[in-house]
Amino acid sequence: MDHIIGLKHGGKTMTENLANACSICNESKGSDIATFVDDPENIVRFFNPRIDIWEDHFSLYETGEIIAKSMIGAATIKILRFNHPESIIERKELVRKGLI
Ligand SMILES: [Zn+2]
């Protein structure tokens, strides 16, 4: 379980602010809530699974790679390391088995 908005940013330990996360995403995100995308002036928040729609921000390729469809998607992929080599291998196998 991961806090979507970290406790130090005022997030609460309640269902609306919790999400399942793999260890790579959880450790990579830490208490971050946003990052810079393309430009140091462009701060973009991360995808929030409680308010955002996954398909609006990401595409999943059969290779197991996740591609951004929005700035929020790009920020999230970058910091949570969605395309970490271990994640791609695991995701590719899930795609092959028709589980995702
Ligand atoms: Zn993950």
Write a structural description:
The structure is a single chain. The protein is 33% helix and 21% strand. The longest helix is centred in the last third of the chain and has 12 residues, at 85-96. The strands form 3 sheets. Strands 1-2 form a two-stranded antiparallel ribbon. Strands 3-4 form a two-stranded antiparallel sheet. The two termini are 20 Å apart. The protein has one domain (2-96). The chain is globular and about 40 Å long. Strand 5 and strand 6 (66-68) form a beta hairpin. By secondary structure, it is an alpha+beta fold. It has helices at residues 23-29, 54-57, 71-80, 85-96; strands at residues 2-3, 18-19, 34-37, 39-45, 58-60, 66-68. The mean pLDDT is 95. The chain is built from 4 helices and 6 strands; from the N terminus they run E-E-H-E-E-H-E-E-H-H. Residues 21-22, 24-25, 87 line the site of zinc ion.
Summary of the model, kept short:
The protein has helices at 23-29, 54-57, 71-80, 85-96, and strands spanning 2-3, 18-19, 34-37, 39-45, 58-60, 66-68. The chain has 100 residues and is α+β, with helices and mostly antiparallel strands.
